[in-house]
Design a protein that fits this description.
By secondary structure, the protein is of the alpha/beta class. Strand 1, helix 2 and strand 2 form a beta-alpha-beta unit.
C-alpha cells in the first residue's frame, strides 16, 4: 500500500508540473557561452514543457555559488542547473564544498559537447602546430599563457597541454575568457586555449591564429587537426554541458524535463545556432539521465588526476 501510495503521489506531482516558472541557474556571468546555450534551450523548452523557463545567472567562486544554490533548492523540478565541465573539475579544485557534486543532484541529460581550440596572437611567428610546439619547448616560461582564472576550462586545458609537452609557460589569469581574448587580440599575451564558441569570431576574422582542437575528432567548419592526432596521444578536453535537478526530484518530473530537453535537441533553430557555434548537440544516448550521471563520475576522476598532478587548487 505504501509503495502504491508513493507512486500515486509521484504521478500526481508530474501531472501538476510545472506549477510556476522553471528557473535554469547558470553558474557563470551573463553573455558567456554557457549563458548563450542556456537561453537557447530555455526558449525552446518553454514551448515544449507547457510553462515558462527562465535563466538566472549566479556567478561566483568558480561556479560553486550557483551550483550550491541549486543543490539546496526544493526538489520539485522548478530549479535546474546548467553547467559545463566545471561541475566535474570543482570536485577536486575545491577541497571544501558545501555540496556533493554527485549525490546532491539528479542528472536530467547532457545538452551539448564542444571542443577547445588552441590559439595564439596573430603575430606570434608560428604558422603550424609543429612550429608552435617547437617554440613552446624552446622558449618555455618566456611565453605567456592566458586563461580565465584558476580552475577554468582554459586554465585546465593549458595545464594538460603543458604537462604533455613537458613545458612551463608563464600563466596570466583573467576574470573570464573575454578579457583574456581581448589581450590576445591586442598582442599583450601569447597563447590561449579557449572554447570554440568564444574564439570562433576572432578566428574567422583572422584576428588570432588557430592551430588545433582538443576533441578526439575534427570540428566541422574548422580545418584544424586534433591535438590527439598531432603528437599528443589521448589528449581530450571538451566543454560539455549537462542539465541537473536537485537530488530527490520525483522521477516523473525528471522524465518531463528530459522529454522537453530531447525535443529541444531536435529543434531546427537550436541545431542551426549550435552549428554556427561549432558545438555539437547531445546525441540521443547522451541526453539520457543515466549517461550524464556516469559521464560526470568519469570526468571527475579524469580531471582529478590532472589537477592533483599539477598541485593547483582554488581554495
Amino acid at each position: 500500500m505504501a509503495v502504491l501510495f508513493g507512486g500515486i503521489v509521484a504521478q500526481g506531482a508530474a501531472q501538476a508540473f510545472p506549477t510556476k516558472p522553471i528557473t535554469i541557474v547558470v553558474p557563470f556571468a551573463a553573455g558567456g557561452p554557457s549563458d548563450t546555450i542556456a537561453r537557447l534551450f530555455a526558449a525552446s523548452m518553454s514551448q515544449k514543457i507547457g510553462g515558462q523557463v527562465i535563466v538566472e545567472n549566479v556567478a561566483g567562486a568558480g561556479s560553486t555559488v550557483g551550483i550550491g544554490r541549486v543543490a539546496k533548492a526544493d526538489p520539485d523540478g522548478h530549479t535546474l542547473l546548467l553547467s559545463h565541465i566545471s561541475h566535474a573539475t570543482t570536485a577536486t579544485l575545491y577541497r571544501k564544498l558545501s555540496y556533493d557534486p554527485i549525490k546532491a543532484f539528479a542528472p536530467v541529460g547532457m545538452v551539448t559537447d564542444g571542443a577547445f581550440v588552441l590559439v595564439s596572437r596573430k603575430d606570434f611567428g608560428t604558422d603550424t602546430l609543429p612550429q608552435l610546439f617547437a617554440r613552446l619547448k624552446a622558449d618555455g616560461d618566456k611565453i605567456t599563457y592566458a586563461h580565465a582564472g584558476v580552475g577554468s576550462g582554459s586554465h585546465l586545458c593549458g595545464l594538460m597541454l603543458m604537462g604533455q609537452l613537458g613545458v612551463k609557460m608563464t600563466q596570466i589569469p583573467y576574470r573570464g575568457t573575454g578579457p583574456a581574448m581581448n589581450d590576445l587580440v591586442s598582442g599583450k599575451v601569447d597563447v590561449l586555449c579557449d572554447q570554440i564558441t568564444s574564439a570562433l569570431p576572432q578566428i574567422q576574422g583572422k584576428a588570432i591564429k588557430a592551430y588545433a582542437v582538443t576533441s578526439t575528432e575534427k570540428v566541422k567548419g574548422l580545418d584544424l587537426p586534433t591535438l590527439a592526432a598531432s603528437g599528443l596521444p589521448g589528449f581530450r578536453a571538451t566543454v560539455w554541458h549537462g542539465l541537473y535537478a536537485p537530488a530527490g526530484t520525483p522521477a516523473p518530473v525528471i522524465g518531463q524535463i528530459n522529454k522537453a530537453l530531447r525535443e529541444a535537441l531536435k529543434d531546427p533553430v537550436i541545431l542551426q545556432r549550435l552549428a554556427q557555434l561549432s558545438t555539437d548537440p547531445a546525441t540521443e544516448a547522451q541526453a539520457d539521465p543515466a549517461f550524464l550521471g556516469k559521464h560526470l563520475v568519469s570526468e571527475i576522476a579524469a580531471w582529478k588526476k590532472i589537477i592533483d598532478t599539477a598541485g593547483v587548487y582554488a581554495d
